[in-house]
What we know:
This protein is mostly beta strands. It contains no helices and 7 strands.
Amino acid sequence: MYTDQTVTGLANGTYTLTAQAVGGGGQSGAYLSVKNYGSGVPELTAPIPGTGWPNWRQVVISGIVVTNGQLTVGLYSAGSGGQWLSVDAFTLVRQ
């Protein structure tokens, strides 16, 4: 499963994306990503650990250099039936 959202109207500069995540584990892959921000790096990613309930962890992608006034935040998870992941409390902060 992959879902994303593009954020527009950003001032160019360096940003940090954070989110809180909890998952049951066992997925073949789970990560947060940032792309389409114009600085020549195709995509930045941070793995989302399978920590088990109720062990929420902060996931951070820092050093996002926006040069085109936008970015796309993505969430990817691949797994079998019964595996789960929850991500909440996203923040995007300009440094």
